[in-house]
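Predict the structure of Sarcalumenin.
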Amino acid sequence: LGFSLSLCLSLSLLQEDIISVLRDRSHIDETFRLAAEEKAADYAAAIQRLRKIYHTSIKPMEQAYKYNELRQHEISDGEITSKPMVLFLGPWSVGKSSMINYLLGLNDSPYQLYTGAEPTTSEFTVIMHGEKIRSVEGIVMAADSSRSFSPLEKFGQNFLEKLIGIEMPHKLLERVTFVDTPGIIENRKQQERGYPFNDVCQWFIDRADLIFVVFDPTKLDVGLELEMLFRQLKGRESQIRIILNKADNLATQDLMRVYGALFWSLAPLINVTEPPRVYVSSFWPYDYAPDTSRELFKREEISLLEDLNQVIENRMENKIAFIRQHGIRVRIHGLLVDRYVQTFKEKMSFFSDPELVFKEIVDDPDKFYIFKSILAKTNVSKFDLPNRDAYRDFFGINPITNFKPLSGQCSYMGGCLLEKIEKAITNELPALLSSINSGKQPGLSSCEATGCGEKPKNRYRKN
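Done. Here is the predicted structure for Sarcalumenin.
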């Protein structure tokens, strides 16, 4: 009996010790304001308005001039309605999965992501909101057009077997989606994975709203594979956040040396004026190691949570800005194709060889002022112009005779493609953004609902 009481007492004390080393998570809920009710109706109305603008004003020109064959990026309804995506990248066993478990409070639950000292994550794992907890196969995710993952089919069945989704009813996942990636292993070539790993990473990088590149201070192994990853991150520096995780494993003086070594290693890879923000802390549920800078780590953690929350709060504004940027690129593409078509028609004569005429134009567009004329006549920045060599390949697949000039892209009922896309860029999308910022209901206007307003001019009727 005495032994039993002693054992029970020991177990009770052990349980209290385990509970005591768990970190308080209340600041996570407070930062994300998970207890507050969101105005879901307003957000849904804004999304529907944005979707309508895209389909009626931008997509027609996109399809008429085959823009997706130039940029290889077609915007789906799933991408418009999707939540902000946070991508976790980095070497193996640096704490990417543990960080997601900590943010969502999944530790010691049946659905926590598996973690360990060895390379544990071999799949691309998408953690998203759902009515009930369940896993979704990659093949199912790619086949579902309501999601934003259908374009991933192009990477083949071997990759889809390495893609998995986890749905769960979590307040944070109502506002954001997390993507956990396989760790980079420097002594293994990426082609050994059986699918184009770098291409898949690029697909997620292009669509991520925030990119966490996670490092372990005890193993800063910056090799060829990590260099390749940072080359893929070029142009996305504003979305990158570097995490120096497991910082309580080192004494303060050693941590300062590691911090400097990390910047020294990454400096050649991140060639920008302002380096990405670096967060130094330990992102897992257990208390910091004794005799470490726990106050610093706590402040760093709260700063990172506020950074993430800012992306969540601005998700509608970012989506509008993304669609507007896409619309500007589509407009520039339409203007360039129109100029190529007009130049081709001007240079053609009865005795001309069409192939030779167009080859001369596409090989030396500056001779015919293709790009300069766009800058001279329209409010287009020279920094937004695409690479002129891309149009040699574009017209190699799509003959110039397949396209009509912009003046021929008008109809009595539908109006003109150029006027519609310019109206979306200059008026409709900025107005939607203003309604979001002012808190007004971004619903349809009375004229859009009833069809009133000025009728388009009949361009085929003589005055």
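The longest helix spans residues 315-347.
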